[in-house]
Amino acid sequence: MQKRLVLDEEQIAITLRRFCHQLIENHDDFENTVLLGLQPRGTLLVDKIVALLKEISGVTVPSGYLDATFHRDDFRRRDLPLKANETKINFLVEGKKVILIDDVLYKGRSVRAAMDAMIAFGRPQKVELMVLVDRKLTRDYPIMPDYFGVRINTLESQYVIVEWKEQGHEKDSIWITEKDKS
């Protein structure tokens, strides 16, 4: 299986810092802003953003993890049931500016489901989307990120793989691979 590097560790670090500076510019003191990492792969990313924001600005932004498994449009259409992840949100989103954070934006289905799941915690004032990778030609829903690391053209036959050191990989990296044809 061939792999093509999209972003290496240094480029990811630069991208995360850029995200933080963009958030600081757009959200002033973060008084009315919360960050939600989409389970399962947006949780590491939200934790990294929260830590970097604290380092850069000295502000701890409220954050949590949101699982949208039971809000997915394909939940009951699978041969095997999906396994839900933990939702960890210890605040209301009512009237807040919410930034949904995930690693890859593909079809838009996960983000649509996340917006449905988020409503259980109140009606936000505004919702923004932050992703490391925007697979721009594959969308099923009209969903676009407000913040993105890189936009790439991919085929249906390709995967985008995000590897983190925290998950046991040698270094942080993002790859495009072809689906195994065997």
Automatic annotation (TrEMBL):
SUPFAM superfamilies: PRTase-like (SSF53271)
Listed Gene3D superfamilies: 3.40.50.2020
Pfam families: Pribosyltran
Keyword set, alphabetical order: Glycosyltransferase, Transferase
MF GO annotations: uracil phosphoribosyltransferase activity
The keyword Iron-sulfur appears for this protein: no
Keyword Glycosyltransferase: yes
Entry's EC annotation: 2.4.2.9
Ranges of residues in domain Phosphoribosyltransferase: 7-159
Stored CDD domains: PRTases_typeI (cd06223)
PANTHER family noted in UniProt: BIFUNCTIONAL PROTEIN PYRR
Protein name in UniProt: Bifunctional pyr operon transcriptional regulator/uracil phosphoribosyltransferase PyrR
Phylogenetic lineage: Bacteria, Pseudomonadati, Bacteroidota, Cytophagia, Cytophagales
